[in-house]
Amino acid sequence: MNSIRLRPLSHFFLALFLTFAAVGNSTAQQGAAAPVATAPEASKDGVTPGSTAAAAPAAAAGATTGDAAAISAGAALFTQNCAQCHAINDVVVGPALRDITKRRPVSWLIPWIKNSSKVVASGDEYAVKIFNQYQKQQMPSFQLSDAEITSIISYVTDESGKAPGGGVSKENVAKTDGDNTTTADAGATASSSTMDILLIVLVVVLLVLVVTLVIIANIMKDVLRGRKDLDGRDVEQLESRFDLAKIYRSPVVRGLALGLFALVVLYESVQGVMAIGLSQGYQPTQPIAFSHKLHAGENQINCSYCHTSVYKSKSANIPSANICMNCHSQIKTESPEIKKIYRAIERKQPIQWVRIHNLPDLAYFNHSQHTQVGGIECQTCHGPIQNMEVVYQYSPLTMGWCINCHRETPLNTKGNGYYSNLVKLHDKANGAAPFTVSSNGGTECSKCHY
User: Which residues constitute the signal peptide according to the record (predicted)?
Assistant: First the structure.
């Protein structure tokens, strides 16, 4: 007799599976079609030489604005200049800034931020009160324009409108209700939840189908074994067993396993040879347990506050103990780790920090050229430094790694006459290809080795 096959049943299960897959795909497309807030794309032209932060909008001095660009610029300036000593809701070194414009007018805040010492010396009652209240801790003067200070105040005002826990205060509910970002987040969350539920249901259904098929197959085998009219081919197929040992003894399988093992050994050997002399992942124990996650991450202290020469020198200096004392003369003074700083100052000895990032002497590298002129963020080379409890070398810092960055990083040459002829010659020879660091000679040997 002909072999008995379960084609109608298998077709039914296949159709059921495809139905679930189609429903899942449709739901995913609906979730993707929901309006979402998109982050601004990076400009093809790259960064503008000489810029280290977003430019402040041309706002009228003495008046804040709710413009998103002004708030964004103010956030960048606040992080770079103010976050070391101030927070919106908490007292750090200086007072919390929530609702600062309700305590002092903008016309008072601008000269105070530019030169607080001058305002205190003038005898201003409020300025003297703040100065005495915070142990006569002198706020540094800032060389910021009125427009930049106004954008910082706009950012603080915007943050003041939010609840301390990160939500939105009642007076800002109406404004937020019409925000596409809020709608998009809600839609994305609902879509994600629906997809999770659908996937769980689909997995359960597939498991049930597998178990059902196994049970049906066993039942059919029992039925067939009881029949007397089966021919030799049917009996052979019915009694066939999966022989794992036969597959293992196959020359083809053994050859593939041996070849795969040889490739793995060769790959690991090459990787080991290529890694000689590299320090990626190097994470030494420092003499003082300093946490970048706490300082740069949670407290948002700008890198340049401690590494003062990062924007103006060939090297990014290791901060002196005096910089630590700007805050720790009043914060956590009883901490065992902070007492180590006190002892170093009393003994007039530098703290013996262990260097992590180190280039060979044959390679020339200038920090300011990359950070100030190129506008490169610290995280580009040092990784998520704001999340590191103990700093480690994130990037390989190899020549190939540097050259690839020079080949891929475009330069913003607009408005800079120095590049005019270079860009014309480049566009003539390369068409629409972007003008990169490499196009400006950034991969020539003499740039780094001389």
Answer: 1-21
412-449 pLDDT, tens per residue? 888 888 888 998 899 888 888 889 999 988 899 998 99
Evaluate whether residue 120 is within a structural domain.
Answer: yes
Query: How many beta carbons lie within 10 A of that of residue 224, not counting itself?
Result: 15
Question: How many distinct helices (H) and strands (E) make up the chain?
Answer: 21, 0
Q: Which residue has the tokens 């009125």?
A: 146
3-state helix, strand, coil in the chain (%, to 5): 55, 0, 45
Q: Which of 131, 152, 177 is at the close of a domain?
A: 177
N-terminal to C-terminal alpha carbon distance within the chain: 87
The parent domain of residue 140 ranges over 68-177
The Cα–Cα gap between 366 and 396 comes to 17
Q: Is residue 229 part of a domain?
A: no
Per-residue pLDDT reduced to its tens digit, 171-213: 443 343 444 444 445 555 666 788 889 999 999 999 999 999 9
Tell which of 159, 177, 195 closes a domain: 177
Asked, for residue 143, whether it belongs to a domain, the answer is yes
Domains of the chain: total: 2
Q: Do residues 296 and 431 both lie within one domain?
A: yes
Tell me what the mean pLDDT of segment 88-116 comes to. Answer: 87
Same domain? For 296 and 156 the reply is no
Task: Kindly give, in sequence order, each residue whose CB lies less than 8 Å from that of residue 46, ignoring residues fewer than 6 positions away.
Answer: 409, 410, 411, 412, 434, 436
Q: For residue 380, is pLDDT > 80?
A: yes
